[in-house]
Design a protein that fits this description.
Blueprint lengths: L5 H13 L4 H17 L16 E3 L5 E3 H5 L4 E5 L6 H13 L1 H6 L3 E6 L3 H11 L4 E4 L4 H6 L2 E2 L3 H9 L4 H4 L7 E2 L2 E5 L5 E6 L9 H11 L2
Parallel strand pairs: 3-4, 4-5
Antiparallel strand pairs: 1-2, 3-8, 6-7, 8-9
Helix pairs in contact: 1-4
Pfam families: AhpC-TSA
Keywords: Antioxidant, Disulfide bond, Oxidoreductase, Peroxidase, Redox-active center
Protein name: thioredoxin-dependent peroxiredoxin
Amino acid sequence: MTTTPIADQVAQLNEAMAAQAPAEVLEEFRSEQAGLGAAGVPSGVAEAGTLLPDAELLDAHGDATTLMRTLAGRPAVIVFYRGAWCPYCNVALRTYQRELSAELEARGVALIAVSPQKPDGSLTVTETNQLTYAVLSDPGNRIGRALGIVTRPGEAVRRVQQAGGLDLTEVNADSTADIVMPTVALVDPAGVLRWIDVHPNYTMRTEPAQVLAAVKEHLV
C-alpha cells in the first residue's frame, strides 16, 4: 500500500494547479470549496438501514445494468464521484484501485464507482486510471438522490467551467448540471446501506484505511 494519503496527493495537486491556473479562476473554486465545507453534510443524507433503489445503470460501454445485477449477491463499497473531468476524483479512484481493489476482492466485497456522467466519461476514467472495478453511470442520479448527496455547482463556478470547456449538461447522462458529493457507501448484498461517508467539499475524500476499517466493522 502507498504511504501517500489522498489528502497529501490533493495538496500536491492544488500546488500544481496554483502554478498553472489564473488567479481569478482559482479564487472562484476556493470560494466554492470554502462554502461547501462551511455548509457541511446535508441533513437529508440517508442513514444506515436505507434500502437503495435497484436503479437502471449503464456500464462504461453503454450497456444497461442494475445495482443488484452489479452486486451479484455481494456486499459492496460504492464510490460516488463527480465525473472524469474532476481531477480530485481521478486521484481518489486511482488510489482505491491501488489500495482497495485487491483487498476487497479477497474479502468477497465488490468495489463499484458511480457518477452521473455519460458512459464515455466512465470509459475515460477506467482507461486513464487503469481501473479493474466496475465504473457505472447513474442517469438522473437515482441512487444519489436516495442517499441525499445530489448537488450542483453555483452559477459563478459553472461560468468558469464553461469558459474552460466544461458544460455539465453535455457530459451528464441526463443533460442536467446535477452532480454528487464525493461519497463512499457500504451496502450489503440486498442493497441496504450499512455505512456512509459524505464529503461536501469535493477536494476531500475518504481514505482507504477508513474504508477498510468500515468494511471490517459493517460488512465482513
